[in-house]
Amino acid sequence: MLKIENLHAEIDGKQILKGLSLAVNAGEIHAIMGPNGAGKSTLGYVLAGKPGYEVTDGTLNFLNFDLRDMAPHARAAAGLFLGFQYPVEIPGVSNLQFLREALNAQRKGRGEPPLSGAEFLKIARAQAAALGLDPEMLKRPVNVGFSGGEKKRAEMVQMGIIDPKFAILDETDSGLDIDALRAVGAGINTIMRKPDRAVLLITHYQRLLDYVRPDFVHVLADGRIVRSGGPELALELEREGYKDIAA
After folding, report:
1. Cβ distance 182 to 190 under 8 Å?
2. For the chain, the helix, strand and coil percentages under 3-state DSSP, each to the nearest 5
3. 247 domain-assigned
4. Number of domains composing the chain
5. Containing structural domain, residue 58
6. What is the CATH number of the domain that holds 207?
7. Which of 8, 12, 61, 235 could pair covalently with 57 via S-S, beta carbons 3.0-4.6 A apart?
8. What is the pLDDT of residue 247?
9. What average pLDDT does the structure give for the chain?
């Protein structure tokens, strides 16, 4: 589904990714762990096409598309979803308005007809109920006045509505209490643990992986993947940290 080879990327002239290679197949969940400054978030931003992140070498193949040739909105229409560590607030724009426009823009990009208001509302309410988000919150401005847990639940609702093929979740567990963590983990499993979907989880900690069990864990250090293993690798990192990670 996703194949990255020898990826080099920089921002403001500073090289962050230095020859990263990774392959993610459909039906798999991969966790990316590593110390601060290793390039984890940069990897997510590069895949999503965030402006300012320049790929200087390597290949990015997603479902036989060359991501380097695609604008961010085209990547989203092809099935990529980026979940942020700190979801942004958008005053004056309701969640329902935002999500309907986002979904219909993607449908247009795929040559599909837009959903009517009634059709969209049915989907939005079902996703909110599945993730324990009060449907009334969908009427509020995007993330304005939301707690950290509410923002992440709202983002899971967004992911459920968009229904991407590949989700890049950047520190989704950041700032969550145990109940919110459990709800977000359940949301990821419900929406994305399917034979034709895949997930790249970027995280510092093992705790999210108690709820979303990865097939593979990779350690990113100094812009490269330096170790890979199964879920047991995350437990080792939790015990021992990253001090000997390049060994």
Report:
1. no
2. 40, 30, 30
3. no
4. 1
5. 2-240
6. 3.40.50.300
7. 8
8. 45
9. 90
